[in-house]
Amino acid sequence: KAGVTQTPRYLIKTRGQQVTLSCSPISGHRSVSWYQQTPGQGLQFLFEYFSETQRNKGNFPGRFSGRQFSNSRSEMNVSTLELGDSALYLCASSLGTGGTDTQYFGPGTRLTVL
Amino acid sequence: SQQGEEDPQALSIQEGENATMNCSYKTSINNLQWYRQNSGRGLVHLILIRSNEREKHSGRLRVTLDTSKKSSSLLITASRAADTASYFCATDALPGGSYIPTFGRGTSLIVHP
Questions:
Q1: B48 in contact with A, Cβ within 8 Å
Q2: CB nearest A43 (choices: B45, B99, B103)
Q3: Nearest-angstrom CA–CA distance, B65 and B45
Q4: Phi first, then psi: what are they for A50, rounded to 5°?
Q5: Are B86 and B33 in contact (CB under 8 A)?
Q6: pLDDT tens digits for B3-22?
């Protein structure tokens, strides 16, 4: 079974631009969660989608948004990029929602904001 | 602040030795998970331990959970150079009923061949 895939793997943007990251979960998984990882703040939870609905949300500004499609693929969008948004963005998929099942992580998208 | 905090922040050992990492958390949990991350890559799930469990094993890994002390430990026995990675614990904080997975800052383990 194929693992979680994320595209693109690397991205360079400038301040003020917006970016869309994509995540394809493991086949059969209906939950997709997004995380931001930075050296200063560590791994932080952005949000979780399950069956096309946002189920849980971390403490991030509204510039960070996401959605999930009927095939469980998910996208994350960051608008009006700031330098501090430079990070490794990880998505993870699981069968169920709410932390009851093991999460399987993708390789991440490395975003650099100049 | 982080719900889970790993200790030590860094650990350097020789191949064949055991490595022990600890995780402390603040609020009640349903489960606690340990992950491994190799340099700047995605996380690999190691073990999930539920709040009603005290110990779990997986190969060379042993995880314990003490809910009274709000702490967990990960023991890697007979370590190998390939175990070099960062190790994170994650808890399912439930502020106000919402599920918020919370990771610690990790323990950086270096195993010298």
A1: yes
A2: B103
A3: 17
A4: -145, 125
A5: no
A6: 667 889 999 999 999 999 99
